[in-house]
Design a protein that fits this description.
Length: about 450
């Protein structure tokens, strides 16, 4: 017979956790799978208890869903320790028993992907500069060298590409910009249409001449969260060996005030020729993304998905409950939405009305202003309308992740700090897309 867990010399300590309602399934009000969320939360709290007891190893019951259990364990135990002499004890979670070992492994990979994004976001801006970010991702992709290509494009390349909007932000800083371009070729054919991810990579956003208030400004070290989540999703897709091609694009720079910085009222020219009046230098993310989105059109993408910590207004609108998704494609929306129900890292659809476009195209000196003319009203929506001016592709989604950037205590299986959301949703989305035909819609 099987030995019981209690009184077992192999298990001197046992943590018991409650899983809530049995077979709760998909909650149609909450838009997530409640069983999975409960398992993540319960396993996370159990593993943290083991960590507090300084026990180096824990076997985790799969709780009926080994992937969710692994995610709870690996996400729950993560903490940014890098720069402290006193570190949390390392706890290695393992699956208890042999049933579901494949699902467990998948959960570990998903969670490690999110933890990679959390690590990059949490790290101080003097450690994760544009070049350090690029090199870190290059190193992570080194394990999959056979079907991965990494291009770390320097400032000269960015200038040749006529990315005047991106460059105008970068030139305010002493730290040189980088345009990171990564190719993961997991598809049956190297020339199958790729999924293209684009991420805002502002490694520190001071606001520039339109300087932010000093209180809480340190959080703007995570303003590369878009780049972190999309690049981590690609690293994870490679680790899972997903059968599709994915290209990742990350314009990386700092937004700083200096004698060379953008000044309010300056006009810059984006890659597609459109001119932009920089009415607020703190609305810099859309300037980087304008050029990166133009460039994303070079790849005959199945879909272009960008992620950005773009607006404080997004946080005002939804808080940390869900990522705001602005998309011109219901097909793309459905895929993202279905993925998010499984991962519990939710999305919510937001509007791309012409109403908002008018508020950014009505501009004294240029084709576009980088802020809406009623600057605070619908701030997340006017930002999305601005990005739309650089998109002609039929399947594009902009994910405003400013509200989900950090965790206080809302997500029970993440500790306080930068959240790395919605990396798992991006991975799950890519996994689902890889099951579709690779021909463009
Ligand atoms: N990176 C910020 C947005 C942000 C704010 C992200 C808080 C996460 C938390 C972005 O560059 C910014 O400053 N946006 C301005 C736009 C405004 C000037 C139109 C904002 O939201 O205030
Ligand atoms: Zn800003
Ligand atoms: Zn920013």
């Amino acid at each position: 017979g099987k030995r019981s867990l209690c009184n077992n010399p192999d298990f001197p300590s046992v943590v018991v956790v409650g899983l809530g309602k049995k077979n709760a399934g998909v909650n149609g009000q909450e838009n997530w799978n409640e069983d999975k969320e409960n398992i993540r939360a319960a396993v996370a709290v159990g593993c943290r208890q083991i960590q507090d007891l300084e026990i180096p190893c824990v076997e985790v019951d799969p709780c009926g869903d080994a992937q969710a259990a692994a995610e709870g364990a690996v996400l729950g135990l993560h903490e940014y320790n890098e720069l402290k002499q006193k570190k949390k004890p390392v706890v290695t979670p393992q699956l208890h028993g042999s049933a579901g070992s494949e699902a467990w492994q998948k959960g570990v990979i998903y969670a490690e992907g999110q933890n990679l994004a959390r690590y990059l976001m949490e790290a101080p801006a003097n450690y994760i500069t544009p070049i350090k970010f690029a090199e870190y991702i290059e190193q992570k992709l080194g394990n999959f060298a056979s079907n991965v290509k990494v291009h770390i494009r320097p400032e000269s390349w960015i200038a040749t590409q006529q990315m005047g909007a991106f460059l105008s932000v970068a030139k305010g800083s002493a730290e040189p910009p980088i345009f990171l371009e990564i190719h993961y070729l997991g598809g049956a054919n190297a020339n199958d249409s790729p999924l293209v991810f684009v991420g805002k990579g502002v490694t520190f956003d001071s606001g520039g001449i339109s300087l932010k208030p000093s209180s809480g400004m340190d959080a703007m070290r995570a303003d590369m969260g878009g780049a972190a989540t999309v690049c981590s999703a690609i690293v994870t897709a490679a680790a899972l060996n997903l059968p599709l091609n994915i290209i990742g694009l990350a314009p990386l720079c700092e937004n700083m005030p200096s004698g060379k910085a953008n000044k309010p009222g300056d006009v810059v020219r984006a890659k597609n020729g459109k001119t932009i009046q920089v009415d607020n230098t703190d609305a810099e993310g859309r300037l980087l993304l304008a050029d990166a989105l133009c460039y994303a059109h070079n790849f005959n993408a199945r879909a272009i998905v960008n992620a950005a910590t773009l607006t404080g207004a997004m946080d005002v609108a939804l808080g940390s409950a869900a990522t705001g998704v602005f998309t011109n494609s219901s097909w793309l929306w459905n895929h993202l939405y279905e993925a998010s129900i499984v991962t519990g890292d939710r999305v919510w659809r937001m509007p791309l009305f012409e109403h908002y476009t008018k508020q950014v195209t009505d501009c004294p000196l240029a084709d576009l202003s980088n802020i809406g003319k009623y600057s605070r009203a619908g701030g997340a929506c006017t930002a999305a309308a601005f990005l739309k001016e650089f998109v002609t592709a039929p399947h594009w989604a902009h994910l405003d992740i400013a509200g989900v950037m950090a965790n206080k205590d809302e997500v029970p299986y993440l500790r306080k700090g930068m959240a790395g959301r919605p990396t798992r949703t991006l991975v799950e989305f890519a996994a689902r897309l890889s099951q579709d035909s690779p021909n463009p819609k």
